[in-house]
Structures are given as C-alpha cells and as structure tokens.
Design a protein that fits this description.
Number of strands: 0
Strand content: under 5%
Radius of gyration: 33 Å
Structural class: mainly alpha
Distance between the termini: 102 Å
Shape: elongated
Number of helices: 1
Length: 75
C-alpha cells in the first residue's frame, strides 16, 4: 500500500512559473492587438466618409476592348 502525500502548500510569495506567466501575457497582448486591428478595420469600412474604391464604369478604359472573331455558320 502506498501512502498518498499532499502536494506542498503554496505560501504567499511562493515561486511561480515565470515562463507560463510571460506566455499568458503574450497571448493576452496578441489577442488585444488582433481585436484592436479588427475594430479599426471594421470602423474604417463602415464609416460614412469612406466610399470605397472607384468603380470601373466611372473611368475610361485603358485600351480598346478585344474583338471576338466572327463565327461563320455553315449553310
């Protein structure tokens, strides 16, 4: 039969995992940055002063359109 030992009690100021704490802060900071960028992007897209790119129909074409070859029908 084995004796079960209780894990050592943690006291105030006991040593914590610094790597785990640093990774948790990095994870939280990354999420805050992503959420901020998404919010800024959504605000920019939905703002009234941003009308978006100009439509192609509003401009002259850069070159003449390609002509399709005439299709001859057999009679």
């Amino acid at each position: 039969m084995t004796a079960h030992h209780a894990p050592p009690a943690r006291h105030r100021g006991a040593h914590h995992d610094p790597l785990g704490a640093a990774l948790a802060w990095l994870w939280a900071l990354g999420h805050l940055i992503v959420l901020t960028l998404l919010g800024v992007t959504a605000h920019h897209q939905l703002s009234a002063d941003h009308s978006g790119p100009a439509l192609a129909a509003d401009h002259e074409p850069d070159r003449e359109p390609l002509r399709e070859p005439a299709v001859e029908t057999g009679a």
